[in-house]
UniProtKB/TrEMBL annotation:
Annotated membrane topology: Multi-pass membrane protein
This protein's record includes keyword Ion transport: no
Keywords: Membrane, Transmembrane, Transmembrane helix
Localization (cell): Membrane
Domain MARVEL: start-end pairs: 9-149
Transmembrane regions listed in the UniProt entry: 9-29, 41-63, 138-158
Protein name (database record): MARVEL domain-containing protein
GO terms for cellular component: membrane
PANTHER family documented for this protein: MARVEL DOMAIN, MARVEL DOMAIN-CONTAINING PROTEIN
Primary localization: membrane
Stored InterPro entries: Marvel
């Protein structure tokens, strides 16, 4: 489906961009925490989920461009790894929100003044980075959650039409525009029946055509077949009537043909 292919590409691109940003920001906060003996578990979780997301999505997107209908792009497989990712981002966003609740990044706030004392006038920037981790984690969860349910609902809608093959193929390549195309079947260059002129032939018409061809192949009764027609047959009556009309009646005692 072209619409799903475009939407999937856009959402995955946004998730990748946000994951790269989160990777850098969370790594910086983890390094600062280790330097000053602070255990920032929410930042460590964001760092780990960012690495997992990049390790999963980059190979999938590369395979989509190199090989069509690759295994990670199958509907069943994509629902699996996509569902795992949105659960991880939900956990990351929820943990960061719980840890950073009430955080004030104003220039005169207690948090900023406290961080300025240890980081040397970098407290506000660090505080904003913490808020960025929280916001981008929620955005990644929303994008992946929406993509997961979009894919699942679409697959359920076309399950009967595709006879279940939609689960073992890429939704981006699925074309619900006919029986063959909806099932993802390659016609292999065969000419459809509608183009041969016999698409509208009914069984009765086909039987009549076959019977007519058989009649043409049978030898006609007459001199060409080596046997004259018997007297009283329609052919004999037709010949006698024609000769009588033209005045060529044979004499009595001569066999009439």
């Amino acid at each position: 489906m072209k619409i799903y292919a475009i939407g999937r590409l856009v959402l995955h691109a946004l998730v990748l961009i946000f994951s790269i940003v989160l990777l850098g920001v969370s790594a910086n906060l983890v390094a600062l925490g280790n330097k000053y003996g602070l255990s920032l578990i929410w930042a460590q979780l964001a760092l780990a989920v960012s690495v997992i997301t990049l390790a999963v999505m980059i190979p999938v997107l590369v395979l989509d461009r190199v090989r069509r209908n690759a295994l990670p792009s199958w509907t069943a497989a994509e629902l699996g790894w996509n569902g795992v990712l949105w659960v991880l981002w939900l956990a990351c966003a929820g943990y960061a929100t719980n840890a950073l609740q009430g955080l004030d990044c104003g220039s005169r706030s207690y948090e900023v003044l406290y961080l300025d004392y240890y980081l040397g006038k970098k407290g506000q920037a660090v505080c904003q980075q913490a808020q960025a981790i929280e916001a981008l984690s929620w955005l990644n969860w929303i994008f992946l959650f929406a993509l997961f349910w979009w894919l699942l609902i679409t697959a359920l809608v076309y399950h009967n039409a595709s006879q279940g093959t939609v689960w073992m193929s890429s939704m981006s390549d699925y074309q619900p525009t006919g029986a063959g195309a909806a099932k993802g079947v390659d016609m292999g260059g065969e000419v459809p029946m509608a183009q041969t002129g016999y698409a509208g032939a009914t069984p009765m018409a086909a039987g009549t055509l076959q019977q007519g061809m058989q009649q043409q192949q049978q030898p006609a009764y007459g001199y060409g077949a080596g046997m004259p027609p018997a007297a009283g047959t329609p052919a004999t009556q037709y010949t006698q009537g024609t000769l009588a009309t033209q005045g060529h009646v044979p004499p009595a005692g001569v066999a009439q043909v």
